[in-house]
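Late entry, evening session. Most of the bench is empty. Finally got around to the prediction I had been postponing all week. Sequence below, unchanged from the version circulated by S.P.
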Amino acid sequence: MTSEIFSPVADFTSKPYPKVSPLAATLGIAHRTSLKISSSCPAFELPLNPQQLFHSSTARIKGNYYNQGEIRKKELEQSCCVLGIPASDVTVIDHRDLPDSPAVEWDTQLLATLVLKHIAAKNINLVVTFDAGGVSGHANHISLHTAVRYLHSEGKLPEGCRVLVLESVNLFRKYISFLDVLISCLLPRDALFILTEEETEQAKRAMRCHRSQLLWFRQLYLLFSRYLVVNSLRLL
């Protein structure tokens, strides 16, 4: 993979895309509500081959948050379908030691082992996940970042495999929608995605598939979140 894929924003938003070697990318999300972020971070716009989604969750096991594991799994598949990601490219990891809970920090070694196994099995050379802030500060999000950072810092990732992390922003920037585009363009980053109106609507349709989780604050997210319009990422 060449470094062009991480060039300035024009390389991402202009068509045709820059010529790069084939990518096999994975989105690392911590639980099903994470898709509200990953669906609007348009990794699916890159020339990915194949589009892989790593999803660590607690579906079908005792202790899943709100006891809605099976419902949320179906909603995830529906949401991915809206984004053009087939069910065959969605990997759901069920593990009793990785409960879907904002109060639980996942074991770094266990999670790193599962992530690395997925990367090797799918020949992944680009990992996209959360940064150290987890975007919302959710413990599961942060745990996933910690595991991927561990793999990266210890040199355990396959040769040529790179990692992009989604930037966490302060509460003000998080909820000023398209107004954050200018701020994001002025600040340093390794990759910047600015969605078109059509792409933003697609991301919203994907999130609405998660009907069991559309609480009042997520309705506000749909209206005001900058992550449905602009996403800035950094390389580890």
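Two things to note before I forget:
Residues 139-153 form the longest helix (15 residues).
The first strand starts at residue 23 and ends at 29.
Will write this up properly tomorrow.
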